[in-house]
Amino acid sequence: MNQSALAIRCAGLVKRYGDVTAVDGLDLDVRTGECFGLLGPNGAGKTTTIEILEGLNPHDAGDVEVLGMRWGQDDRRLRQRLGIQLQDTQLHDKLTVAETLRLFRSFYDRGRAIDKVIGMVELESKRDSHVGKLSGGQKQRLAVACALVGEPDILFLDEPTTGLDPQSRRQLWTLLAAYRSGGGTVLLTTHYMDEAETLCDRVAVVDRGRVIALGAPRALIATLGAEHVVEFALDAGQQPPADAALRALPGVIDVRYESTSVLLSASAVHLAIPALLAALDASRVRLSLLTTHSATLEDVFVHLTGRHLRDA
Amino acid sequence: MPEHAPRTHHALVELIRARLFEIVREPEALFWMFVFPVLMAVALGIAFPSRTVDTVIVGVLDGPDAARTATVLTAVPGVEIKRLTPDDAALALRRATVQLVVEPGPTPTYRFDPARPESRLARRVVDDALQRAAGRTDPFVPREARSSTAGARYVDWLVPGLLGITIMSDSLWGIGFSIVNARLRNLLKRLSATPMRRRDYLLGHALARLGFLVLEAGVLLGAGRFLFGVPLHGPAWLVALVCVLGALSFAGLGLLVASRVRTIEALSGLMNLIMLPMWIVSGVFFSSANFPDALQPAIRALPLTALNDALRAVLLEGQPLPAIGPQVTVLTLWGGVSFLLAMRVFRWR
Questions:
Q1: Cβ–Cβ gap B7/A183 under 8 Å
Q2: What global pTM score does this model have?
Q3: What digits encode the pLDDT tens for the residues B178-224?
Q4: Do the Cβ atoms of B25 and A94 come within 8 Å?
Q5: In chain A, where does DSSP find H-type helix?
Q6: Which end of chain A lies in a sparser environment, N or C, as judged by fewer CB atoms within 10 Å?
């Protein structure tokens, strides 16, 4: 086993808050240089897990190793090498961007020049603006800049793009790509499947404090056996064809029912859709909706848990 | 990989710098820091101009002998008279707009409240004047050697006390608010995720406190000097030393108070719990000698008492450093012990 190739190793992690078990025997290996995503709904235990790995939250059982060191023994040396962005941190409103970074820079023995970091997060025009005057996306980029200023070996990001507009999200993604091109390791949590698919080399799908699926996003989607999802809904009060009939349609692998619609996992949309339309026609029901999309991690999650990421 | 830029500044220096920026950019905070204590000094200075009770206001009841009595009393220095109808007289006594009412006559009646010191004084002055006018002769006229009153007036005594509470509340509130706010904003947690030394953070708050101390003390002492002629005896370095010690002592206490508090409401409650008793017993508006002897050791062990006593000793009496040794010790102990305790119990999330 090549230990040095692992940036984070964590086995049998358990964390309880009173009667609630937030993390329930979670195993995780993050390789050096990869971008690893913890994907799961709110309350799945992602934040608790990442905060344990960051050394901010003690765990009840299990083994955690970060960069070959352990919390409780090498804390200061470890902190020098980690860059951390937390959910909902509000930096000093009255300090400017440059002043904030200068403060964070002073905590690290080595690191980047402030203006270099400001350039990385594209906040040059806001260099001397007060933090309180920044937009949400700019604040988030500053938070990431604070994590980058110590030139970390591992970057921890907890829901980095939650609440951001699409443009700000894309800016952050570009920024992460630049950090990774320098060889850095990233561990991030998200409940956006597109984010995980775009950014992550591997993801762990987390539900109720456990890893329920692990692998590259494409590989996880491939486990569905179908690359597409066909979704349809009928006019109110109308019954869809029998389950067995839907499953028997050519190209259909799986059938799921939601409150108002039916989802078919399909390996061949060009066969499934004509067959579906014919079947609906035969049962004399009318469509109110028909869409298709490529299968996503969301579909993986639904397939595994029967629930959606966003409302699980 | 980009080249490493070496660390350019020490974390403690940067923490102090950031904290100072935070304060300067909060105009309301500056108002409370500098303007409020001066306004209070002015208000109190006006209310108690020069607590000399030589002037007494005496009411003379209308009646046949009123004119003669009024003439006698008007001639007495330090007596101001008011002619009153019986109805007015009762009201004036009740409202204390006069200290005593004379019912003129061959045997005058003095109406007054003996519980009021000014009224007892008025009775003596009025009685002396009327007895002499009626023919009494004094066996001798005493010579008077008046001691200088500068530095002994109420406002002289008040200004160091106001400086004491200003230093106390600015330290406690300033540090308490800033820390609880940072905790509420998750900023403490974020900082604890960096290699920042926790000691540096607490020390930074305490030392940043000193940044405005010169102004705080200067504005208040300056106002005292120029508005009321309050004397400033002790050497500036000793005054500064006492102020610095006081500020650091209360900074330590502020850190301890804020070390685990999660809401501004809880902080306010705690602050009041700590400060109110000291406002009362530590000799701010009236001397702590008014409290029973049994309580004196406890009162003297309080940091505000120590600060006020040391300030008065240095400013009003020009005492040297050795004379305020006990106060310096009390302040150092409060500051040191509370800082160390705060380090231990401080909650970073």
A1: no
A2: 0.81
A3: 999 999 999 999 999 999 999 999 999 999 989 888 888 888 888 88
A4: yes
A5: 46-53, 75-81, 97-105, 114-120, 136-148, 166-181, 193-199, 217-222, 243-247, 269-282, 297-305
A6: N
